[in-house]
Amino acid sequence: MTEAAALETVDVTCVFQVSQGLLRGSKPLRAVNGVSLKIPRGRVVGLVGESGCGKSTMANILLGLQRPSSGDVLYSGDSAAGFSRRQIARRIQPIFQDPYSSLNPTKSIESIVSQPLRIHNVGAPSEWSARVGEMLDVVGLPRRVASSYPSQLSGGQRQRVAIARALIMRPEVVICDEPTSALDVSVQSQILNLLQDLKEEFGLTYLLISHNLAVVQHMADRVAVMYLGRIVEEADSDTLFNDPRHPYTRALLGSVLTPEPRLGVPDTHLGAVFPNPIDPPPGCTFHPRCPDCMAICRSEPPRPASDGGHKTECHLYGGAGAPPTATHRGDNP
Amino acid sequence: MTDNSAARSLVFRQRQTAEEILEPSPWSKLRRRILGNHSFLIGAVILAAIFAVAILAPLLAPHDPYDQDLTKRLTNPFWHEKKIDAAHVLGTDKVGRDYLSRLIYGSQISLLIGFSTMLISGVIGTVLGVTAGYFGGRVDMVVNFIINTRLAMPVFLVAMAAVVAFGASLTVVILVLGLFLWDRFAVVMRSITMQARDLDYVKAARAMGCSTPYIIVREIFPNVLSSLTVVATVEMANAILLEAALSFLGFGVQAPTPSWGLMLNEGREYMFFSPWLLALPGVCLFMLVLAINLFGDGLRDVTLERER
Amino acid sequence: MSGTILEVENLSVDIPVAAGMLHPVRGIGFTVSRGETLCIVGESGCGKSLTSLAIMGLLPKTARRNADRMEFLGRDIRNLREREMARLRGGSMSMIFQEPMTSLNPSYTIGNQLAEVYLRHVEQSRAAARDRAVFLLEKVGISSAASRLGQYPHQLSGGQRQRVMIAMALMCGPELIIADEPTTALDVTIQAQILHLLAELQREFRMGMILITHDLGIVARVADKVQVMYAGKTVEEGPCETVFDAPMHPYTQGLLRCIPIPGRTRRGERLGSVPGIVPNLVGELSGCMFRNRCDYASDACAGLRDEPTRMGDGHAYTCLRAPEEVLGERQPAEAP
Known about the structure:
The complex is a heterotrimer.
Chain A lengths: L4 E15 L6 E15 L3 E5 L6 H8 L7 E6 L2 E2 L5 H7 E4 L13 H12 L4 H14 L16 H13 L5 E5 L7 H18 L2 E6 L2 H7 L2 E6 L2 E7 H6 L4 H8 L40 H5 L5 E3 L2 E3 L21
Parallel strand pairs in A: 3-8, 3-9, 6-7, 7-8
Antiparallel strand pairs in A: 1-2, 1-4, 4-5, 9-10, 10-12, 11-12
Helix pairs in contact in A: 3-4, 3-5, 4-5, 5-6
Chain B lengths: L1 H16 L8 H11 L1 H18 L1 H4 L38 H37 L1 H15 L3 H12 L3 H11 L2 H15 L2 H8 L4 H38 L10 H8 L8 H32 L1
Helix pairs in contact in B: 2-13, 3-5, 3-13, 5-6, 5-8, 5-9, 5-11, 5-13, 7-8, 9-11, 10-11, 11-12, 11-13, 12-13
Chain C lengths: L3 E14 L2 E14 L3 E5 L6 H9 L7 E3 L2 E4 L2 E2 L5 H7 L4 E4 L3 H4 L6 H12 L4 H14 L5 H4 L9 H13 L5 E5 L7 H18 L2 E6 L2 H7 L2 E6 L2 E7 H6 L4 H9 L50 E2 L5 E2 L5 H12 L2
Helix pairs in contact in C: 4-5, 5-7, 7-8
């Protein structure tokens, strides 16, 4: 736990005003609601949650594309306030889910991969082509794709191009937003292997955003589970997968369908639907879907409790494993 | 462990053999589609011919289009004469000007109007549309208001009023049309930019630290270009027809400039005895507009397929 | 017991394209019995979706369909007219699509859409249709079903829409359900719920089901029978447990090695992969189409015929490798 954080958020909140129609004004949507997450250098942190839980907003905040409403992002311990967008861009790069929309169809692969060099004026233009070639080698693409266009490549090849573009500036942190979910099974594993290789080769730090827990478990050292803008559980990968505490984490784990026959489809007991984030339920936001819901959950938001490195935000574990009491006042800023 | 090393060699081999590129390049595909698209080809050929005529007008026209010869008024075109009059193949008009020369020079006016109107309205509409589409929110609301205001004004009446106020001239017609025909550009560019803005490559460019103008010009613009050219052809045809209509009504280009619309107006009086005075400029207009539309339609088929 | 609902033999689909004739499906055969789930699994471009469309008679106009046999409830459906086919579709044979957002008409209420299917196929009173709709909406786990009938699709979440789609597919008591990637657009938790629901309903109504997916996890959990497709052909088929426990075809083996399994694969361990890409299916094709990506490929593979090696209990694979050879090497590989 003493490792230096390459990237850290401190109590980050991001509120959007959502228009309710012409005359009804707008309501606040707390996409991210007080998240503190530390991404240690050289590690892989997984961020897991359903769509609408705020993980994409988190990615945008970390990339400097979205200014948090409150809280701070620390790059190697320094506040985001001291960085320009271009400086952030040199440290952090994204890899997106859909390799079909992440590459500009009108540009050649060489132009796409060398774009960061051009934007940041790195080296002489005469060297760019060679750097692109090296980068293509690194991601396992033949150099001749440099002159082709995205529409000529398969999904896996495109994702490799996107990775080459993200890494050509040698960033410290790569935010992988569902890097494999749009790909075929056989290609998925190639991309995951590649990401592993590159991590070793360049000493990268990853934030892996995914809903596929099998992938997260395979890649991540530490996992944070997000629900409605808050991190409800965070622990080292082994701890979290062996000893999931929050009922939501348990449901998520139960929903993973591994290719093991005879197990059938588990019943996750997540009865109700994902709540509307504009109008979150009172108390613990998870209570309408929670199989272990208690009276207190309906009225009071749980406070974060930490047990070693295992953080949980649930009344079942309120006060570091102590039985829940009604004395907590959930006063989150 | 054997499993693992086997897997490693697999990856190694995968990097060596890599995946071959099966798809032809988008440009060669585009070329193939252009060659397979008849309406595009026909439109392009006619358009190129009219262009050539307009540019080479001084060389092609047998006479000065303004030269009057009152001794030779309203002579017939060649198909009404036993002996072809080599000096006036298509005859002369009511003041004895060579009709062929006037038709040839008329193409210059039509193309000039079409192009300059398209350019002016294209710039206005694209700037407004792209700005609204990219920034959204309040900017979008303001632009939408401007678009709606513009749509509430009847082009034709405003153009006539402007001509009355500022006097009729080629410049006034071009400016009036240019300042009024941008609505379609704005609407189309706005919606396409909105779609493009949310694509991941735009987000990637932002995450790369690109400035907003760079993103709009270098990332978004090339991807809306094909739609832009399609709208541009439609507007060009529209502008040419509007000019002809304005000139026909006397609110456009003024005599003695050889505009096809004006020639239609002048030929009106002789409709029954010399119908070709109407028919010839009419056919020219028709061919030009048809060619532009065929070209635009073909262009849409050829390019939009590339994007999907 | 003659529980067979659908029987397909040597089904192929040809689509003329600019470069020649595309052969996306090249001789597929299977049977589905009452209460049985057949999973067709494969990667994009293997022809699995076209197979389902071919059965439903929903292929694009230019496509040509050929089959030695296509019998649904003992009736030959190869040459049925469009009107008769339409009567089958949504009636005794219904389909669930991937995208619940686009498969429901946004301008009609849920109740209207559910009732319409019923009235078109079963022709009873509106009241009966309504009762059935409420009954099924409750069955698929939609709370306060009666009040939901007046809602529009956009008022529901993705998972709920997929539930409505399932209810709609069940309206006329179908014998066969064809589900094409029914959960791909959904979150994992919702995916598990929907699959759980589908499996339960299928057991209850004793329907046959064809589930088309690329996700081997789903296949393993819901299938009775598995059919692995590659480049328009079945490369391996058999009972679910057998195929997953002892995959015989190099492609099936490769796919299974690609997937991280919590508890089995170690963190950061290199995953297996299937290098290369799917071959182009235009023009004359012969031999094993997997040979350019296969570890065991030899010159003989170019001459592979469509004669599957049968292993008993319906397990069969189309590959030149002998069963002894495949099974023989599995032991040492898994031992350490």
